[in-house]
Amino acid sequence: MAHDTPRGAPLLGCIADDFTGATDLANMLVREGMRTIQTIGVPEAPVREADAVVVALKSRTIPAGEAVAQSLAALRWLQSQGCRQFFFKYCSTFDSTDAGNIGPVAEALQKALGANLAIACPAFPENGRTVYRGHLFVHDALLNESGMQNHPLTPMRDANLVRVLQRQSAGKVGLIGAADVGRGPIAVRERMAALRKEGVTLAIADAIADNDLYTLGEACAGMPLVTGGSGVALGLPGNFRRARLLIDEGAATRALEGLDALPPRGAVLAGSASQATQGQVAHWLARRPALRIDPLALARGDDLVRQALDFAQAHADQAVLIYATAAPDEVKTVQTQLGVEHAGHLVEEALSAVARGLREQGVARLVIAGGETSGAVVQALDVRALRIGPQIDPGVPATLAIDAGGRPHCALALKSGNFGTVDFFEKALRALGAAH
């Protein structure tokens, strides 16, 4: 690692391709003792009192060229803050298409940083995502048999990540197998050296347990760029600690100071169609008030936003769920009639408008399910930065949105569609201190 940056500057600069993924990564870093700030897009002002900064982009499903441009802009800003190492974060289910965006963004960042090799490891064993012999598993199912083959924007139909990444990349893709990872950091570095000699520039890394993630993280000490899901970031803070650069671990637990000053009312917004979110919605429907946003009704011009806000106001004494979540067959029917992009845009616009209206009603604590939904809502609320607090469920922390002066203005739980237990919504509201 370089040692020419000013003391007190952030150590690790991270670029995430969606907003829930960014909070997932930030959650991991906080767990390992790093004070972490998440920004929404590339900020204008410098960050304060942070060991790690995560720049959250909404670049997962946009054209690859735009994703590259946004990621490079984030990199330049992070470099200007004095970061010593950089991390490109994508989903633990490797969400992408043959056109990108993981490969193009990773290679652009490599070129900008002069990194001749970077690992690519989406594994997150705590949430059932493991990589073995280059194949990604979701619990006991191969990726392409896990339900991800039905994803409306990035259907994943190949579990072999070497093949998937190679189709997106100009350079050669290789593999750091479980045997090498199991032998420890030195063996991983030796494998990296061998891959460099073979002309490999990106290497999928196996990981089936958290110990493997710590091994990979230690092996990447001093490397300019690391890429992966949030899991592999577990091993990076230790490198800074061993270098005596990470000192005040306790500060990472004080992120939610000021939460009690916010109004107590909370709500849940769900746009994801993932299996986990469907279960969470069903669990809520059996117990609590909810209103569904129907994309076909939106397309007809029905004012569902006003209906949702009236519904929330009528239940102002408790938290409500406003959701567009539906089963895969229903999603496919809607997309056939409206088109994939138009259907998604209608839902995001509606839930964003609902979020703005809820804020006007005094709702200051929001649980949001789905990466695209979270991105749209956070932008609609003009959230610029988040302090990352304690974990609610693996990959999902409680967060506090702060203004340029560090003052809190709302509390958020941003959940990837596939994450969380069946009662996540209720747990998240409790973690945010919402009356429900």
The CATH architecture of the largest domain comes to: 3-Layer(aba) Sandwich
CATH superfamily of the largest domain: Putative sugar-binding, N-terminal domain
The tally of helices reads 15
Biggest β-sheet strands, sense, barrel: 15 strands, mixed
* Shape designation: globular
How far the N terminus sits from the C terminus, by CA atoms, comes to 47 Å
Low-confidence stretches: 1-6
Radius of gyration: 21 Å
The average pLDDT score comes to: 92
Q: Beta fraction of the residues?
A: 15-25%
CATH topology of the largest domain: Rossmann fold
Number of domains: 2
| Strand segment count | 18
Which class best fits the helix and strand makeup? Answer: alpha/beta
CATH class assignment of the largest domain: Alpha Beta
Give the strand line-up of the largest sheet: 9-10-5-11-4-1-3-2-16-17-18-15-12-14-13
Binned, the helix content reads: 25-40%
Feature tags:
single chain; alpha/beta; Rossmann fold; Molybdenum Cofactor Biosythetic Enzyme, Chain A; 2 domains; 15-stranded mixed beta sheet; three-stranded antiparallel beta sheet; 15 helices; 37% helix; disordered N terminus
